Amino acid sequence: MNLPDPPVFLLTRDEQLVSKLHPRFNHSLEFHVSTDCGDWHRLLAQIGPGVVLLDLRLPPDSVKPSTFLLSFPRHAFIGLGVPRTKAINAPETSGMYATEDLNRSPGELFELTNRAREYHKLSEECRWLRQRTQPRTEATNAVNGSSSALNDFSVKEFIRIVRCIDNVEALQERLLEELATTLQLTRAGIVLRNPREDCYTVRSGWMLLPGVRGVRFSADDPFVLWLERHAHRVSRDTLGLVRDGGEAKILERVLDRLGAELILPLRGRGGLLGWLFTGLSISGQPFQPEAADRLMLVTDLMAVSLESALLYQEVAMQKTLAESLLEALPAGIVHTDASGGIQWFSDAAARILELKPSPRTGSPLHILGPRFVELAADLPLEAHARKTRDWIHAVSKRPLRVTAVRLARDHIDFGILFTVQDRSLEVALVEKQARLDRNRFWNDLAASVSHEVRNPLVSIKTFAQLLPERYQDPEFRDEFSRVVNREIERLNEMLEQMNGFARPGELQPTLLNAKVLLEDCLRELRGDERLSGAAQTTLKFDDPETALRFTGDRRALSICFAHLLRNAVEAKRGAAHLEISLKELQNHAGKREVRIRIRDDGRGLPDVDADTLFSPLFTTKPKGLGLGLAIARRTITDHGGRIDIRPADRGALVEIFLPVDPLGDSP
Question: Which residues have a Cβ under 8 Å from the Cβ of 491 and sit 6 or more positions away?
C-alpha cells in the first residue's frame, strides 16, 4: 500500500522561526504555516493527519498542547522549545513523537521531520491494516457492499480510471460509475469548484434526482463555509451530534437538496476542492462508521486525481492559448532548454530564417547560425537576463533583431527564449523617411536661400540702376561701394555656411588655448560694423589667469563660437552683456573636460525643445538661414564633446563640454 506523503504543519507565533524554516521546508514538502492560535484547530482539521511542529512557547490564553494531542490523535507532534524549560519538560509532551530545541539548524529539524513523516506513514498503514483485518459479520458486509470490493476499487480500479486525467468530465463519470457499481449505491455525485465563477457546481452524477445536475453553491454559501471550517464527512445519522441547531439545519438542507445520505469533502492542496455525495446502498441501510472511514480514504484518492486532472486541464488550456498567441505573433519565437536543444520553433521563425523544414524538437541551436550560439553564450545565468543583437542573416540577407531572455525560477534553468524580428520593413521605412527628410531639407534650404539672396540682389540692382545717372556724385559712389561690398559679403557668408554644413572639412587638431580662442572670436565680432551691440560686449572669466589647453581644430571651433556669440549679441537690442566662463572639471567617467559657458541677457529662447533649436533652417530672426546652431552642434560633436542650451534667469545659457586631450598637458 502506498499512502500519500503526510503534510507538515508549523504552528507558531514567532515570525523569525517561520522565516528560518520556510525556505528549507517549503521547497520539498507540503508545508503549511499558521501564526494565528485561533486558526490552528481549523487548519489541522481541514487538511488532515500529518506531522505538526508545535511551538511550545504558547501564551497563557492559548490552547494547551495536551488539547491538541487529544483532539488530533492521528497527528505526529514535534514540540519545539527552549531546553530545560517548564514548557518542554512538561508531562504532556511525553505523548509527542519528539521534543527539540527550536534553535537547531533548519537542516537538523528537517531530518527530524522526515523521520516523523515516516513514522506517521507506518502508523497510518498499520491502522488501515487493522481495520481491514477486523472480523465482520455477514450483515455488515451486506450493508456496506463488502470490504473486499471497496479495497479492490481503491487499488486496482482507481489506477485504471485515473488514466483519464486529460478529461475531467470523463474521469468523474468513470469514478462515480465504478464507485456506485462496486458499493451498490442508489446514487452518487461530485461537486467541484469553478474558480473562474467562484462557485461550486454539481458537475457529474450517477442516478441523480431531477434538477440536481448543475446545482450551484456560491463560495460564501453557509454550507461551503461550514465544510471549509470542519472538513469532515456529513451524514444524516450524525446530524444529531451537531451541537448548533442552525448548522444542523444547514446540513440537512443540503442533504435534501442533493438527495444524499452522505457527503465527503474533497480536499486539495489549495483548500476545499468540492465534495462527493452518495445515497443509501441498494439494501436501504445506512453506512456503518467503519465503511464510511474507508470511503473517506477513497475520497482522498479521488480528490488527488481530480485535482491533478483539473490542473492538467488548466495547463493544457494555457499551453494551447500560449501556442496560439506565439504563432499569431509576427516575430519568430525559439525556445531552447538549458543544454541548448531546441524545444519550440514557431512558423514565423522558420519563415524569417528561411528554414525548411522547421527544426525538430531536440535539434542543436547551432543549426540556426553561429550568431545565435554567440548570443546564448554571452547571456548571463541569472533569471530574466536579457540581451539584444542586430545582424544581417547570412542566408535570407534580412536585417534581424534577436532578443534572448534567460528563463529561470527557484534556481532552476528552463533555458533561453529567443524572439526574432525581421527589420526589413523597418529599415526600408527608415531609409524612405531619410530620403524624404533630405528632399524636404533641400527644398526648404532652396526656398530659404532664394529668399535671403533676393534682398542683397535687390539692393545691388537698385544701386546699379542709379549708377549711370549719379555716377558723378562722389557721395553716391561711396555709398554704392559700401552697400555692394556689404551685400556681397553677406552672400559670401551664406555660401560659406551652406558649404560648411553640406561638406564639413576634415578636422586638423592642434593645441589650443580656450581663453585666447574665445577672445579672438569676440575681437572679430566687435569688428563687424553690422553688430552695433558687439562693441559694448563685456567678457567675464572665472579666473583671468585661466589658460585651459586642449586639442581641437581652430578654424572649425572659431566658426562654431562665432555663431554662438553672434546669436547672443543679436538677441539683445542695444548693448549686449555676455558672461563667458571657463572651468576644467571631470565627467562621470573621471575624464578631464573644459566647460565653456556663454550667458546673455537677451530675449530668451522660443518655446521649443532643444532638438528643434539645433535643427537646420530653424530660426527666429527675420534674416538668416538657421544653420548656425546646427553647425555648432555638429562641430562640438565631431570633437567628442556635447552642447546644451537652456533658458537662464535673463536670456539664455549655452554650455559646451570639450574633452581635454593628453596633448593639452604640454606647455
Answer: 453, 456
